[in-house]
Please model this.
Amino acid sequence: MITYIIRRLFAAVGLLLIVSIITFSIFFVVPRIAGGTPETLATRYVGRAATAETVHLTAERLGFYDPMHVQYANWAKGIVLGAEYDYGAGVEKCPAPCLGYSFLTKQPVWPDLLDRAPVTFSLAIGASILWLFAGVSTGVLSALRRGTVFDRGAMGVALAGVSLPIFFTGLVSLAFFSYTLGWTAPGGQFIPFTENPAQWAYSMTLPWITLSFLFSAQYARLTRAGMLETMHEDYIRTARAKGLRERTVVIQHGLRAALTPILTIFGLDVGLLLGGAVLTEKTFSLNGLGKYAVDGIVSQDMPKIMGVTLLAAFFIVIANLIVDLMYAVVDPRVRTQ
Amino acid sequence: MTTTAIPQAGDPAVRPGIEGFLQVKDLRVHFPTDDGVVKSVDGLSFNLERGETLGIVGESGSGKSVTSLSIMGLHAPGTANISGQVTLNGDNLIGASSEHIRRLRGKDMAMIFQDPLSAMHPYYTVGHQIIEAYRVHNNVSKKVARKHAIDMLDRVGIPQPDARVDEYPHQFSGGMRQRAMIAMALSCDPELLIADEPTTALDVTVQAQILDLIRDLQQEFNSAVIIITHDLGVVAELADDILVMYAGRAVEYATAHEIFTAPQHPYTWGLLGSMPRLDRERTERLRPIPGAPPSLINVPSGCPFHPRCAYARLTDGASETLRPEFTEISSRHFLACHLTVQDRQRVWENDIRPSL
Model:
C-alpha cells in the first residue's frame, strides 16, 4: 500500500514535469519556430513605442537570448524557488511560485491566480456536491424503476441536460430566476465565504444549479447504466439469497460497486473544473480562473495563459492522484496488487 | 428413506396425509419474452425430507437452476410467471409476500452458487459477508456475529479462520472461496440447502473435498439438501435420490443406486453414456447424446426427448404425439417414457449396460 502511494506520487511529479515542458514549449518554443525572435517577445514587455535598443536590452535582461533549455530551466526554477525579473524598470522580486509577469499589468501572475481561485473553487465544489447527489440518486432510482414514467422522464431531462450548453441554460435561468422572479442573485456577484457564508451561498446558487444540471445529467446516465449492470451481478443474487433487505442489497451491494467508476470520473471532473469553468464563469460574469484565462487569451498575455494552464494541469494531476488513492480505498483488489 | 416424488396433483402417487418437509407440486415457471413464452419449468413435482439429499440432474436449459431460484423466490419480480405449489415446512412459498420470503431466505433456506468468485462481493471481506448474513436474521452484536463467522469458517475447514475472516474473496483460492460460501450459507443453520453446481467452477482436486464437506455438514446440521448438477459423478457421491430433468420436466426419479444400476429412461442412459469413467476399461469414445437441448419456447410435441431418442420408433409414434405420464413404475421409481417394460429391459440389458 505504501509503495503504491509512493509510486503514484512519483508518477504525479513526473506528469507535472512533462506538462510544464509542453506548456513552455507551446508558449516559448513554438513561436520561435514560427519566426518569432527574442525581440518580438521583449516588445510585449516594453511596448511598441520602445526603441530597438531598449527592446534588445530587455530581451537580454529577461534571458530571451539564452538557449531554450536554459530558459526552461530558469522558468522552472522560478516556479520552485522564485525568480527576479528585470524588464527595464529595475529588478523586481517574484517570489515562489513565480509563474512570470503579466505583459499587460506587469504584475506577477501568481497573486492574481490566488485572487481568482476562491471564485472558481466555490463554483466547482458547490456544484460538484450538488451534481454528485442529484445525478447518482436520479440514476439509481431510474435503474430501479427501469422503463417506468420516472425513468423515461428522468432520462429525457438528462438528455436535455447533456445536450444544452451552459451559456444557454445559464442565460435562460438568469433571465427567469434572477431578473424575472428575483429568487436568485444576478450575475457578476461573488461574496467570499469568509465574509458572509449566507450571502456567499446566495450569490452562487444559480451558477451551482446550472453547472450541476449539466453534470447531473451525465452522472445520472452513468449511474443508471452502472446500476443496471451491477444489479445483474452474481453477488447481488447472493445478497438477496442471504435474505438481506432490498434497500441493503441496492445501496450496500449494488451502488457500492457501481459507484467506483463514477468516483473516478468525479475526481477528474472536479480537477478539471478547479482549473477554471470557462463557460460558466463567462455566463455568470464571475471573476474566476477561467475568465482570467480567457482575458489572457484575448489580450495575448502569455504568462497569464501559462499560469492558468499550469495550475489547471496541477489540479488535474492532483485529482488523478486522489482518485488513484481512493481506488485503493474503495476496491480492495487494487490494494494487494 | 421417505423422499418421494410426487408427479402431479391427482396422481395415485400423491399420498394424502404425507407432508414432506419441502414439497414441490406442479411447479411451472414461464418467462414471457418477445419470441414467445419460455417454459423453463413445466409441471415439476417432488418431495424432500430433512436429512435427505436430492440430486437434480440435466443438461443446461433443462430447468434445474430455474427450479432452485423459484424455491428461493429469487426470480426478479415481473419477469417470471410462477404457478404451482412449493411448501417448506407447510408454509406455501409461491404467492407469499416478498417480505415473507425474504425472512425465510438465508434462515430457513440457503443457497450455494456455482462460481464463488463472482458470487461474493469483491469489495467486502469474507467475514463481513458472513456477519451480514448472520445478523440480518439474528439480533446479535457485531462482536458475537464475528465470533460466529470465525466459528463457521473453522467448521468448513478454513485454516487460521481468525486471520482469514478479514481477507477479501480474491485473496482466497477457489476451493477456499467455495468453503467460505458454504460457511455463509450455513451461518443461520438453514433447514434447506440448495447447492447449484457447487463444484463446477472448481479444480477437480478440490471438487471431492467440497462434496465431502457438504455431506459432513448435512449430517451435522441435519438439513435437506438439493444438489443441482449436470455431472452424474457429483450426485453419485452425495445424493440419496436423483431427479433427472429434461426440457423443464421430470423424466426419471429414483434412488441414486437405482439410477446407476437400473436406469429406465433413454435420456438417463444418454447421460450415463456421456459420463467419463476411469474405473472402467477404456472404450473407444464417449457417446454424447445426439442433438441439442430443445427450445423451451417450442417444446417438441409428445415426449420432448423424442427427436433425440434412438428408441422413439419403438413407440409406434406415440412419443411424437402423446406426452408420457410420469408414473411410478416400481417402488420409488418414477418414469415418463412410452417404451414398454420389455423394450426398456431389452435395450438396457443388451445395448446400454454392456457399453457403459
Notes: Chain A touches chain B at residues 233-235, 237-246, 248, 253, 256-257, 330-333, 336 (CB under 8 Å).
